[in-house]
Amino acid sequence: MAATKAPSRRRTSTPQERAEKQAARVAELKGQFDTAVSQLVTTDSWRTMLDGAIHFHRYSFRNMLLLLSQCPHATQVAGYREWQRRERHVRPGERAVWILAPMTLRDSDSDAAKGSADQDDERRRVLYRPVPVWDITQTDRNDGKPDSVAPGAPRLTGDAPTKMWDSLAAHAVSLGYALERGNTGTTNGWTNPDTRTVRVSSALDDAHAAKTLTHEVAHIQCAHVADMNEYRQHRGLMETEAESVAYVVCAVFGLNSAAYSVPYVAGWAGKNPEEVAETIKAAGNRVMAAAKTILAAVAPTDHAEDDQPEQ
Question: Most buried residue, 51, 131, 170, 192, by most Cβ within 10 Å?
Answer without folding.
Answer: 51
